[in-house]
Amino acid sequence: METIKCDVCIVGGGPAGCTTALYTSRSALRTVIVDKNPDIGALAVTGLIANYPGVKGDGSGKELLDMMRGQAEEYGADYVKAQVFMIGVDDDEEDEDGGVPRRMVYTPDAVYSAKSIVLATGAMGRPPGFKGEGEYLGKGVSYCATCDGAFYVGEEVAVVGVGKEAVDEALYLTKFAKTVHWLTQGEGPTDEDAMELKGKENVKHWPKTRLVEVLGDGMEVKGVNVKVFGNDSEQVIDVTGCFIYVAGSKPITDFIQSSKIKLNPDGGVWVDEEMSTTVPGVYAIGDIRNTPFKQVVVAASDGCVAAMAIEKYIKGRKKVRVDWVHE
Ligand SMILES: Cc1cc2nc3c(=O)[nH]c(=O)nc-3n(C[C@H](O)[C@H](O)[C@H](O)COP(=O)(O)OP(=O)(O)OC[C@H]3O[C@@H](n4cnc5c(N)ncnc54)[C@H](O)[C@@H]3O)c2cc1C
């Protein structure tokens, strides 16, 4: 597996992550944004954004986000589309130039070794909610096709959800699975990607179908119990994998497996006034903090604070360096 060294690795490419990237790349820190999908975060799915200062109120959230990402890239930040499944903050790797210890960010294709990492995955997550989902998580239930898809070569799998994420991940699974059973509560989306998915030979679309329960033998998934709208009885589809993409409103922290990073009782990541978590060099910004102030301008502001604090941390300064001096 390739290891990529950088100064700052940002997990999540929403307004919080893109703002940090803008500032750190302008400070000549080598910055990489690792983002699961630019179309699925809270800003990306916001239809109209009318309260971001300085921007006309007739554009979509996605347009604003594309501008933010583009601006960070113009200043040198690299954008990588990948899902982070784990971070490493426990076993510090010494930096060869004697600086701060390195932190690790793991994706299915590469590991990022960074002097500082930023957690900016937002709050569109949810706890396991379907019957059997929690019990079989990691034993056939997955939220990451790029991480787990290759385990299902020639197998029957189910994909649950109607969003862009569900469609993209189902398309990815068609490369491996014998059949991808795509369950959508309504008729399902009709955009270009969804139509491509529906047209695949190894996809069986189940419209107006609700997942009732993930079934297994105690060890691994053996099927899903579904209810088709209009039918009285439930029906079992034999599958060995069940990929669930249903958005919620819980901070996305499942990839933070270290107890060194303190979470608040509400599930948000605890930070100090510089957006630093309880692990030096690891910052958390935006909706992942789960404050009541979930707004784009606040996420961007968090991103700026973290970037300036990171520059101080990596350079070993006593004070934050400002671009201007107030006389
Ligand atoms: C429907 C809706 C309407 C809203 N309307 C407004 C509004 O009008 N005005 C306003 O100011 N705010 C609004 N908000 C709130 C605003 O969108 C959020 O506060 C803001 O987007 C938070 O930014 P963020 O960067 O923290 O997270 P997000 O925008 O959610 O971005 C998180 C990013 O992290 C990525 N990610 C998630 N998991 C992983 C992983 N494991 N690995 C790598 N990447 C990952 C996602 O793909 C996503 O790109 C709205 C929110 C919603 C849901």
UniProtKB/TrEMBL annotation:
Keywords: Flavoprotein, Oxidoreductase
Keyword Flavoprotein among record annotations: yes
FAD/NAD(P)-binding domain location: 7-303
Entry keyword annotation includes Membrane: no
InterPro entries documented for this protein: FAD/NAD-bd_sf, FAD/NAD-binding_dom, Ferredoxin-NADP_redctase_2
Biological process (GO), any one: cellular response to toxic substance
Highest taxon listed in the record's lineage: Eukaryota
Any Pfam family matching the protein: Pyr_redox_2
SUPFAM superfamilies assigned: FAD/NAD(P)-binding domain
GO molecular function, one term: oxidoreductase activity
PANTHER family in UniProt: THIOREDOXIN REDUCTASE 1-RELATED-RELATED
Family: Belongs to the class-II pyridine nucleotide-disulfide oxidoreductase family.
Protein's name according to its UniProt entry: FAD/NAD(P)-binding domain-containing protein
Species name: Triparma columacea
